[in-house]
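From the pipeline queue, job 12 of 40. The input is one protein chain; the requested action is below.

Action: predict structure.
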Amino acid sequence: MVRVSPVYIVGAGAVLLALVWAMTREGGARGVGASLGEAAVDFIDGTASGAVVGIGELVGIPATNKTQCQLDREAGNTWAASFSCPAKDFLNYLWS
């Protein structure tokens, strides 16, 4: 006889409720699938572009097409960076 822990039952119920909730939201399964698909593409794109930039830096090629945020941070212009950078990037800049 297989014994199932109550913790597993509660966990499975929570997953089931989350799936039902996601399916009943606007967009339903298509929205959930699109979100997962976009996340996968963003991950692959970020990994590939990060690898290319990393290899370029190793051999001494500077990054091109810098954003205004990157230019402001490199210039040490904290005031301008506070406007041109997303909050996450700006806070990382402040604490680095």
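Job complete. The chain has a mean pLDDT of 77.
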